[in-house]
């Protein structure tokens, strides 16, 4: 049986984590287009369940092919909490919230998630809060606000929608912080697979809706739901967990601020939505902030234990 324990940190692992984070952000940004399509035919709970079932099936096949072991008992608490909050509650709340508010408001509210991750990570995980990280998050959040304001007015907003997006952001932050310790004893594949399964179980009450809506939904909507499960869920959540196991929750949260810029680009390319000047400025600010938050001074880069960033005593080995 294969050993699923995380490898020892190396310079090569650091670059691998950066590449994994990039894959995650690109796929999560692409989910915006697919959710827009699938959400026209599927209700929030049914869409979340269908996405999670597709993701769990994909991950289950990969685990069988790799003959992956069950996660150790010590990892189950984090897996269960992240599965409940992030894979389950977050996806339903976000799908529902985006039907109640315009895209700009949803993006603006949900993007408090990385800030909450940084605060919770510092409080519960002992994550460091270097000035570059704080400055980068401030710049990126300003960019997210700019993108959100430039996109507002395209639809109605409701108090319920804002509350749902806010709850989604809180669930996202809680799920990421809960997932981090689990990666100290379980592999990214294990944590993602069983977190996805927990989320699917949480969403089982929507099974009846999923069956009824799938029978009437156009093929394009169903294919987009399957895409959401295979790529932005199964693949992107696994690459996220891989990167998270090699850096702090705060830095990974800040990395997701690249998503609004990519969403603008993809909406332009695939939906024909030409961005305005203010939207482009916001996207550039998002990317600039991520670059600052992920950078390190020369002295810090050469310091012992700089890879991974968490302190040795805390090192353990999150949409859309």
UniProtKB/TrEMBL annotation:
Residues annotated as transmembrane: 41-65, 77-97, 103-126, 133-152, 158-177, 189-211, 223-242
Region (Disordered): 300-320
EamA domain span: 20-147, 160-292
Keyword line: Membrane, Transmembrane, Transmembrane helix
SUPFAM superfamilies found in the cross-reference section: Multidrug resistance efflux transporter EmrE
Pfam family, one: EamA
Family label: Belongs to the EamA transporter family.
Protein name: DMT family transporter
Native organism: Streptomyces olindensis
Source taxonomy: Bacteria, Bacillati, Actinomycetota, Actinomycetes, Kitasatosporales
